[in-house]
Amino acid sequence: xxxxxxxxxxxxxxxxxxxxxxxxxxxxxxxxxxxxxxxxxxxxxxxxxxxxxxxxxxxxxxxxxxxxxxxxxxxxxxxxxxxxxxxxxxxxxxxxxxxxxxxxxxxxxxxxxxxxxxxxxxxxxxxxxxxxxxxxxxxxxxxxxxxxxxxxxxxxxxxxxxxxxxxxxxxxxxxxxxxxxxxxxxxxxxxxxxxxxxxxxxxxxxxxxxxxxxxxxxxxxxxxxxxxxxxxxxxxxxxxxxxxxxxxxxxxxxxxxxxxxxxxxxxxxxxxxxxxxxxxxxxxxxxxxxxxxxxxxxxxxxxxxx
Length: 306
Hints:
Layout: H1 11-14, H2 26-35, E1 48-51, E2 56-58, H3 59-67, E3 88-90, E4 94-95, E5 119-120, E6 134-137, E7 143-145, H4 146-151, E8 169-171, H5 176-216, H6 228-254, H7 276-279
Antiparallel strand pairs: 1-2, 1-3, 4-5, 6-7, 6-8
C-alpha cells in the first residue's frame, strides 16, 4: 500500500499536526469594507448611507430590509441596530477625478489597482481606500478624512457650513474600540430621545387641562370689589338700559323687528300720557279695532261660486 516505486515519505506527510490559523488578506478585507455594501454584499452605488456605527450600505438595500417583514428575514450584527430609515445618514461623497473604473478595462487584461478609490477627501485630497481613517458628520452627511479635521480645527463643516459637535463625528469602518465607543454614544442618544418623548406627553395633557380651569375660575383682575347690594343693583340697571338699545340696533341692521328680550318690559301706548291723535296712529287704539260685522268674510262673493 504505497511507498512503491522508490518513494520515501516524509514525516509531515505521515504525521498530521495542528492546523494553522488562516489569515485574512488585509487588502481583500479593505476592498470588501470600502467598495461593497455590508448588508447585500453588492458594489456600493449612490445613494450611499452609513449607520451610527460607521458601516456603509446601499440605501436601496436598507429600505428593502426594513420593508421585509417575513420571519425568514436575516438579522445579523450588521443590521440589528437599524430600526428605521432615521438610523442611517445619506453621505455626501466627493468623486475622485483619477478613478476610471471599468472604462479602460474593456478586454479584461488590465491590472486593477486596489489602492485607487472612487472617492476622496475634499479638503486634503486623500483617497478613501481604507489606508487612511475617514469620518462623516451625522448632522449633514459630509465625509472627510480624520487628518483634515485635526489640521483644520473648526466647529463648522468645511463644505456646507453646518455646525456640529464632537458627538456628531462618526468614524467609517473603524476598529473594534471605535465601534464600542460609537455603540455607547448611540445607546445614550436613543435613551435621551425616549425620555424626551415621555416628557412631552404630560406637557400636552397639562396644556389641554389649563383652558378648562381658566374658563371656570376667573382671574383676580375680573373680580369686582365693593358691597354685594350695590353691585347687584348696578348690574340690574345696566342690563335694563342695555336691553332696549341692543334690540333697536339689531332691528335697524337687519331691517326686521326682533323679539323683545326677556329682561326688557313691554310698553303699552294706550296707558301712556300721549295725545289721542298720536295714539290713533297705532293698531292698539280703539279706532283701529273693527267689529265682527265690519270685518271681511273669508268666502269670496263672486259669480263663479254659485
